[in-house]
Amino acid sequence: MAAVAAGTLALGLGSASIAPSQAVEADAAIAPAIFPIAQQQTPDEELGAKPYLGWSSFSMQVFSGDGKWIDEGQLLAQSDAMHDKLQSVGFEYINVDAGWNGGTDEYGRPIPSDELYPSGLQSVIDHVHDNGQKFGLYLIPGLSPQVYADDLPIFGAPECSTGDIAKQPLQQADYWDLGYAIDFSNPCSQKYIDSIADLIAGWGVDFLKFDSVTPGSGIGDLSLDARDDVAAWDAALEEHDIWLELSWALDIRYVDYWKEHAEGWRVDWDVECYCEGESLTVWDNIARLFPRAAEWWRHAGPGGWNDFDSLNVGNAKVDGLTNDERRLATTFWAVSAVPMYIGNDMTTLDDYGIELLTNDEVIAVNQSGRPARPVSTETNRQTWYFMNPDGSVTVGLFNLSRTAADMTVNLTDLGLDGSAKVRDLWAKKDLGSVDSEFTATDVPIHGTRLLTFTPGKKSAITLNDDDILLGYEGDFDRNGGKEVASTTQPFAVTVGGAAENPAPPASNTRTLTVNNDDPSITYNGTWSRSSGRGLGDFQDDVEYAEANGSAFEYSFVGTGIDYVTETHESQGEVEIYLDGVLVETVNTHIDASEGRGVQQAVYSVRDLADGAHTLRAVKKSGQYMLVDKLDVIQMSLISTEGATFDPAAPGDIEVSLRDGSELAGISAGGTALVEGTDFSIDGDVITLSEAFLSTLAEGVNTLDFHFSGDFRDDVHSTATNGDSVSFAFEGTSVTWSSPLAPDQGEVGVYIDDTLVDTVDTRGDTRSTQSELFTSGVLKKAKHTLKLVKVSGDVMRVDKVTYAK
Asked: What's the CATH number where 255 sits?
């Protein structure tokens, strides 16, 4: 939700109404044995084990223009409609949004509206439960000004009162400035939240949407910060097994916090179009979710889920989407493993809407809990996929373009090498077998395909380090700065006389620049971002803090780093820690007569071991501390920055690479060079052909050398000896590939619980996707591969490949 009527939603306030005018505008078949159809949560199932299926009232409140649409009759009708039309495939939550409450009791706790629920909200909740469903309510952070002013006793805590729990001086708690921030350093504050949680649990509430959560909800500078509220509600709801869903547009920089305290979190703005009486949503509000999902997919899984907001696909007359767009949205919600809760009036679902929402194979994809990842987001015809426990791969094809198109899936992009059987999940139809690629013909404008590829006999299957089949034991982290992403390094070919254009000198390093707003930089304390300053900052922005003790931390792989900031009379000392050790205190203060220094490298280090390191900087004095950018020094993948081609004395150009196996290709002006014609490769040496070079224009021509990096740009790693990763498979061979690096050591390799090898994973430089172990031929049976850290600072796990 992103729009409410003023003065209506903080804890203890009266009935809310929706005000759309206040909307904030945002910049082989899958067998049941593998993915069972969703069923209502069983008593012994962990809360949040899979995405929930249900309904939310907010879209209809906005569409109708009536915040009181959620009255007794509507909720009973929605519950009955769900029971009759959708419950058989697992839909079970009836969630009521803003406006259900009608005041407070004598303890400052919200109570239901008598006007909306003349028979009592309890009778509605009982009806929902009698239908075999769950019931949800809505609240926001903070304390009602009226409840604060009334200074009411807190239920169950006679020593506490509501007049004592607001932060002093009084502070805004939520986006709409409806309530006061609560002081959670006072134990009475938690007791107040507990009292409300106990009350709604007693009514039988199963779900709480907690809105206007910051950082997020349009505010990311920590001027509003509801994290203490989130933690308090998590603690209060946990003992009652009540689902906590956070809203809206949560800040990804704090994703670990959201994962620790909630079962779900909204990743973007409202899906509603706020076009009262016209439609529930519009296509653009669906399309904008794709880049958000590309950022968030890796953070979801059993226990906590990304949330795309309501899936409004149930009735063509009000959805605001074409039928192709309705199916595309349903497919994207399904493969992304987000909660599928619809916003339609369930009493008026059309036949196609019911067909979309009750396809058991599509629902099973969602309930498998495997968020899909994109092959690439660089085009508007995208392939998203995830691997299933049996080695098959579920694939969503999404045509976001304005024309119909054929869309081709390369099996190698999915981790499959060989043949595969293809099944269309929407049609529930097997499409036969393919080798190496599959083409879906005539995917319509804003259309989709949902497919499963099941590998054939003798096919090889490659699993990424994050795959469901890999079981980690110990202190493994994903990435943590220990990964190397695929990258591109420029190489300049100067066409002209060699005497006038000498080749650049050999170089063994390159620079990776990280802007201050990069999500890989972790900021601690209160930080804000300033952009458009016009002072010469890198990318015209900086991050800044005023409180001493504020800090930033950045983990990187390389041999050096520069902390680049501003120097000014308003700034002071900064402590620099490298790998946890205080190494220097730098002074960013300069006299007023010196003006302002921009893009100043106030701390630099070189000649570190080529591996993982962490830089931390802490503000000690001055009015401000700034971060402009970080320049990471990494080993160059090319021996030199360029070469000269003299047309008067033409010839091939040889270029040495650090590791030829990492080369993924070469391009010029976006056009790929052809191996064997434009260039050839022999070990670590690339030869650019005279024939190709003679086609280049006089002057400087830039070639882009593309390098693979770690498989799918990520790794798992641990620093603890004895930690292990295991993989159970049925096949005839298995291969483990991971990086070599100076900070790595020995790894014990076990096949079927027998130590078969001890692999030394040390290397002079950090190189990627090295084949470290292969089993050879195994008896076709069930086997287990286990890798155990023996020595070294870190063990990295990248990919495992097995043959059927």
From this structure: 3.20.20.70
